[in-house]
Amino acid sequence: MTPKIVLQKNRKKRLEQGHPWVYASEVQHVDGDVAPGSIVDIHNHQGVFLAKGYANPASQLYARVLSYVQDEAIDTAFLIRRMEQAAAYRTRILENPSYCRVIYGEADFLPGLIVDRYGEWLVVQILSYGMENLKPNLLEALVHVFQPKGIYLRNDVPVRRLEGLPEETGLWYGTVPRYIDIVEHGLHFTADVYEGQKTGYFYDQRDNRAAIFPIVKDAQRVLDCFCHTGGFAMHAARGGAEHVTAVDISEAAIEVARENARRNQLSERIDFQAANAFDFLREAEQEGAVYDVVILDPPAFAKSRRALPGAIRGYKEINLRGCKLVRDGGFLVTASCSFHMRPELFQETILSAAFDAHKILRTVRWSGAAPDHPEIAGVDEGHYLKFAIYQVFHRGT
Question: Which family, according to UniProt (predicted)?
Fold first, then answer.
């Protein structure tokens, strides 16, 4: 018999509004034995069935929703249906669905599962105990739906330890090359799927990278800080920028970026530097440098709520210096991928930086992740990426 979770009477009705998580504080009592990863039925305090999911009693995130149908079996056939729905959505909305995030966890009703597609190969992250328990079924379903040459596991994410799972990487199925070629907006990139950040490439910024084309077409000087493997830098050069300075602290990322520039015949227009971006921005300001466009796309500064105060200081510093480095009428491109940095707080931080820099900002674009990273409406936890383009004007003294 499937264990049953009964929820508190006075909880917020988030589950009924489509939220895919049940927190431990919302649980009134449990009928039956629930081991980590167990499939459970979720009921309200009156005994009305709400959803079916999997649970982890050791986690504050007690249960995650898989289905709203009580008698639906959670098996390989179920996973195939979910994956086919996810693939069909990408085929409808993307120009090239062979290179995208093809399964995005809760937003595709497969909580705890991330799958990025690199042409004939898949890179998978399993983030929860429930999905870990479904591993044999997952593999069978992935092979059936996508028919890949190989699947590589990138389970090297700290959230697995919160679930009581070890971090691991390695080949799961077939063969997967370490470096895979990607074509985006006519540019060729190399993704390191074994050791690159996330699963090797940042699909979530795809549309935002294209969004800079209009603002760089007449630019003489562009600065791209936290450039990683050169995504924004090469879009800037391809879009018409005369010269791009691209900075990242990782020597390995810079080397991949240089190779990407060579492949796209853009090496003469991009100067890649392995340096601390905070130091570079500070020194550039002291030297009186001026740029037509400054791009700031840092890694997550706040990976927990406790880290938020330091993250706010970090975002304010780089945006303050970025504002000061942009010529009058030029553009600031800035982003945050920290979930705990909520959109309104990120905007407040940018405006505070602009005030201190004696600048006025005009919003050109405010957006989030590309549509292969969809969000369930009303689920704030899914809204992590904030991206903005501002035109920058001097305010005087």
Answer: Belongs to the methyltransferase superfamily. RlmI family.
